[in-house]
Specification:
- The protein contains 15 helices and no strands.
- By secondary structure, it is an all-alpha fold.
- It has a domain of 137 residues: Tetratricopeptide repeat domain (Serine Threonine Protein Phosphatase 5, Tetratricopeptide repeat, Alpha Horseshoe).
- Helix 1 packs antiparallel against helix 2 and helix 13 runs antiparallel to helix 14.
- The longest helix has 18 residues.
Length: 315
């Protein structure tokens, strides 16, 4: 990742020294660097680059495609920061511009991303509507990867409903598609989804098996976001003392990278694990305050401190 960042930065600097720069190319390079920053959880740097990319492309008002891409990428950063109101606004702008330009590919991506915003908020029915639209567009454009991604996201959402068992076939199918590809992040996310799904249907053995595979993979690469979600899912099937200790460590990492939903997820499950009533109440109250701030309180409707609530684990 660091080598790629250096190379992209060098290319950007070379273009900046030219009198007549290709604005589309410049914007693409800046956005590529922003995506690398986003993947490494350096969200301030990603947002700064996207602001720069938008400034560059603003001088070419007819380039709707690049502008849609900027809004979509900014939406991804806000989504990862659990700033869901901001993410929703950016994805809606990207969808509007994609429709204006009649770009099925961009529209498909942004519709799917918006669906995942609603998923993280706990609005599962709305999330499914947008993901279904993503799958429909993927079929129209014969995009096998985006179709598989949409089907996998739909299964991930179903895992949090009363129909979790129905999600397993599509998750296993997605796993087979990604297992021998370079889609490392998608592979880890699919393993995390499988582990979560098995946990929710009470199969702790398979939950532990897939969680361990996800955890082992994240140890091979320096990716703090994937490390956080792999540790969170691993804790689901561990003995209570070990799970609490692992989540305590994971909580610090989630706080370091401003992963608000992950912070709430750690705290709310730690509240379930602890037998100390004072700690249980404190952890629950802290998690609820975060969920209220980010607009994700649907996850705790009709719930109480100590309930085994599993919040989404999304990269």
């Amino acid at each position: 990742m660091f080598l790629a960042l250096d190379l992209i930065s060098q290319a950007i600097e070379a273009l900046e020294r030219q009198e007549n720069i290709g604005r589309s190319l410049m914007s693409e390079l800046i956005q590529s660097r922003a995506v690398y920053y986003w993947a490494g959880a350096n969200y301030p740097a990603a947002l700064a680059d996207l602001e720069y990319a938008q400034y560059v492309i603003s001088m070419d008002k007819d380039n709707v495609v690049e502008l849609s891409s900027v809004h979509g990428n900014r939406g991804l950063v806000y989504w990862s920061m659990s700033e869901y109101d901001m993410a929703e606004k950016e994805f809606l702008k990207a969808i509007y511009l994609s429709e204006q330009n009649k770009s099925i590919y961009l529209l498909m991506k942004q519709v799917g991303n918006l669906g995942m915003v609603y998923f993280n908020r706990g609005d599962l029915l709305k999330a499914l509507l947008y993901i279904e639209r993503e799958i429909e567009l993927a079929k129209i454009s014969n995009d096998e990867y985006e179709n598989a991604l949409g089907v996998g996201n739909k299964a991930a959402i179903l895992a949090y409903t009363d129909h979790a068992e129905q999600a397993l076939p599509d998750m296993m199918s997605a796993l087979q598609k990604y297992i021998n590809t370079d889609r490392f992040e998608t592979l880890v996310s699919t393993l995390v989804d499988l582990s979560t799904c098995y946990y929710r249907i009470g199969d702790l053995e398979n939950s532990s098996r897939f969680a361990q595979r996800a955890f082992d993979l994240t140890q091979e690469k320096d990716n703090p976001v994937l490390n956080v979600i792999a540790c969170r899912v691993r804790a689901l099937s561990m003995p209570t003392p070990d799970a609490f200790e692992l989540l305590s460590i994971t909580l610090k990492l989630a706080e370091q990278y401003d992963r608000k939903l992950d912070v709430a997820g750690c705290k709310i499950f730690m509240a379930y694990l602890t037998s100390d009533s004072e700690s249980k109440t404190r952890l629950w109250d802290e998690a609820v305050a975060i969920l209220e701030k980010i607009g994700a309180t649907k996850w705790i409707e009709n719930k109480k401190p100590g309930d085994p609530i599993v919040l989404p684990m999304t990269a």
